[in-house]
Amino acid sequence: DAGVIQSPRHEVTEMGQEVTLRCKPISGHDYLFWYRQTMMRGLELLIYFNNNVPIDDSGMPEDRFSAKMPNASFSTLKIQPSEPRDSAVYFCASSGETYTEAFFGQGTRLTVV
Amino acid sequence: TQLLEQSPQFLSIQEGENLTVYCNSSSVFSSLQWYRQEPGEGPVLLVTVVTGGEVKKLKRLTFQFGDARKDSSLHITAAQPGDTGLYLCAGDLDTGNQFYFGTGTSLTVIP
Fold first, then answer.
1. C-alpha closest to that of A80 among A30, A35, A6, A16
2. Stretch among A55-64, A83-92, A101-110 having the lowest mean pLDDT
3. pLDDT attached to residue A1
4. Is the model's pLDDT at B79 over the cut of 70?
5. pLDDT by residue (tens digit) across A12-49?
6. How far apart are CA A95 and CA A83, in angstroms?
7. What is the per-residue pLDDT across B23-71, written as a single tens digit (0 to 9) for each?
8. Are β-strands B19-24 and B71-76 bridged in parallel, bridged antiparallel, or unpaired?
9. CB-based contact (8 Å) between A102 and chain B?
10. Which residues, other chains included, contact B105 with Cβ-Cβ below 8 Å and sequence gap of 6+?
11. What chain A residue is nearest to B29 in terms of C-alpha separation?
12. Nearest-angstrom CA–CA distance, A85 and A107
């Protein structure tokens, strides 16, 4: 298996623009997670899905952030409009039966200028 | 305030030395995981501990879960430059489906 695949690896955008991050989880995994990592706050859980259904989105910082999982093999995290404070590395992870043992993608480094 | 506090935050040691990293909380966890993250990559799962007092070994790494399931430690024997990275503990609360990562320990092993 290729593991969790995220795209793009790097994204630089101007403040106010819409940003869409993409994730393909490991085939057969029931859980999908979106995390954000910064030096100041460490690794933060934004939202997670179980069988394509959002279970907990309490970590989503504000209404500018939205996530979807239209099918078992694809998820998106969208920021609209983006702000400089959204600059971070965004990770997607997936897991099988035990939702705590997650496999992470390589991340998307987002820079909003 | 972070639910899982790790110490030390930064650690720089010489190759061959031993070290211990701590992960502490006032909350009880059903299970606790340790991950290692290298620059430019995502965290990679090293181990999961689920029973209070449990000890697991992975080559030169020894993981222990506290008896009360509130804390954990990672001990590395004879550290190698390949051990360099960010070590993260993570756990799910005993009270339900809530999963948290620790603050992280950045380890540098100097050849």
1. A16
2. A55-64
3. 62
4. yes
5. 999 999 999 999 999 999 999 999 999 888 899 999 99
6. 30
7. 999 999 999 999 999 999 999 999 999 999 999 999 999 999 999 999 9
8. antiparallel
9. yes
10. B6, B7, B8, B9, B10, B11, B21, B86, B87, B88
11. A100
12. 17
- Say how far apart CA A98 and CA B2 lie, in whole Å: 23
Q: Which two tokens stand for residue B50?
A: 């689920």
Is A45 in contact with B2 (Cβ distance < 8 A)?
no
Task: Give residue ranges of B with CB < 8 Å to any A CB.
Answer: 2, 31, 33, 40-45, 48, 88, 90-92, 97-104
Half-sphere exposure (Cβ direction) of A86: Cα atoms closer than 13 Å = 29
Nearest CA in chain A to B1: A41
